Known about the structure:
By secondary structure, the chain is of the alpha/beta class. 44% of the residues lie in helices and 20% in strands. The chain has helices at residues 9-20, 32-40, 52-62, 76-89, 114-124, 137-144, 160-169, 185-195, 211-221, 242-258; strands at residues 2-5, 25-29, 45-47, 66-69, 93-96, 108-111, 126-130, 150-156, 176-178, 199-203, 224-228, 238-239. Strand 2 (25-29), helix 2 and strand 3 (45-47) form a beta-alpha-beta unit.
Amino acid sequence: xxxxxxxxxxxxxxxxxxxxxxxxxxxxxxxxxxxxxxxxxxxxxxxxxxxxxxxxxxxxxxxxxxxxxxxxxxxxxxxxxxxxxxxxxxxxxxxxxxxxxxxxxxxxxxxxxxxxxxxxxxxxxxxxxxxxxxxxxxxxxxxxxxxxxxxxxxxxxxxxxxxxxxxxxxxxxxxxxxxxxxxxxxxxxxxxxxxxxxxxxxxxxxxxxxxxxxxxxxxxxxxxxxxxxxxxxxxxxxxxxxxxxxxxxxxxxxxxxxx
Length: 259
């Protein structure tokens, strides 16, 4: 049995590719919505954030032979726990990560953290559009909401917990875009025009994360953009293609047979 850390659209596609290659597989996801999407394609999913110890318990229960970590590029804590679990349980850890986007727009500033992005935005002021998700919304809210001459627009998934978080942080309802992607360049342009955005803040989550569309929309309108770089973890192994992950699983299976 293969255990996959999942939750994104490309991770679901990878899970199907692994299953089609002849492996039994189940997924771990954070939300019920992600579990439903997995169930729709016939793959069972465990819902909830897991510590390394909890992962090991699941691995023992399902007799897991390898972990495929296909979590979001910014889900660094999940990856840390998975690497620790694999090491403690003595099973192979295989990291799949979508390729990074090539960003050539001259009005892009790269930063290494959400805090740095918020500090940069605080200096710029104006109408700031966040496409960084809800998990780190408090970082931007604390630094930017109290400032004069700042309107903070937040785009996030239309989930009840996200709306509750916005309410707790004091976000005005008219500054919330609650929508499920994918988002086209045309839709991004429309949002930016509608709100009069002067600064876009986003993450380098790759082509699958629709970074290219956001950057293209900002570039068309001449809007300055802040891009948060991916966290850098010391993965023991990392692949960017489905075929490489499946080949790695085949090598691990062969190695086990020869032992």
